[in-house]
Amino acid sequence: MSDLEPRRSSRLSRKERAGRAYSLVLATGGFALLTAVLVLLAVFTSLG
After folding, report:
1. What is the pTM of this model?
2. 13 and 21 in contact (C-beta within 8 Å)?
3. Residue ranges of the domains in the chain?
């Protein structure tokens, strides 16, 4: 009786979840790489 709402039947399949996780890893890796490049650029321009 604790859960009166029915469960959603449109759950993601394992393949869809894996695809979503892969794209999330790619996005966060890209942002990390961009951050590292910008930090290095800031360091080199402040030294020069």
Report:
1. 0.62
2. no
3. 14-48
